[in-house]
Specification:
A hairpin with a 2-residue loop joins strand 8 and strand 9. This protein has a single domain, classed as Imidazole glycerol phosphate dehydratase, domain 1 (Ribosomal Protein S5, domain 2, 2-Layer Sandwich). It is α+β, with helices and mostly antiparallel strands. Bound molecules: manganese (II) ion (MN). Manganese (II) ion binds next to helix 4. The site of manganese (II) ion (MN) has 3 residues, from helix 4.
Length: about 190
Amino acid sequence: MNVCFERKTKETEIFVSLDVYGTGRTKIDTGIPFFDHMLESLSRFALFDIDLKCRADLEVEDHHMVEDTAIVIGDAILKATGERKGVFRTGYAILPMDEAVVMVALDLSRPYFQQRGIVFSKEKFGAFSSENIVPFFESLALNSRMTLYMKKLEGCNDHHVSEACFKALGCAIRMALVKDERITCALSVKGVL
Ligand SMILES: [Mn+2]
């Protein structure tokens, strides 16, 4: 099922259409090729079908675009996964990319974010500022009501570390959304989240 979300501010205009039970088909245009590549990596590994179009004030810098894209994708995930009924809710991944290894653990429950060691030595990936990566994950977690923990276990190549983060998050989300017919409501001792 597709959910659509639109957000228009003075700084950005973003449209997203998302099917969290897709096959990994992506059409992403944020105006920054490196960020498109990272969002494609996340979506492929999450098996999301996603169509995302963003127009932003990139002449200022890429900060507003990344922040608002995280809000819109987070909102879309929340809308698509609703009360988290019938799914296992938690997911994790330890994902390698060449010399880099990243661990992600998440729970589709409450908004919380923590990370260890996700730092980059270079300032820019093309036109993308590396300082936006951690805030992207934080904003995505808070807006989708996800508890998200990320940790870099190994890695010295910034591209590999970054891409491993996005792929690991995708893997863990895919796992958390696996449906299990034995789970009839939200998986919680309280019965609701
Ligand atoms: Mn790459």
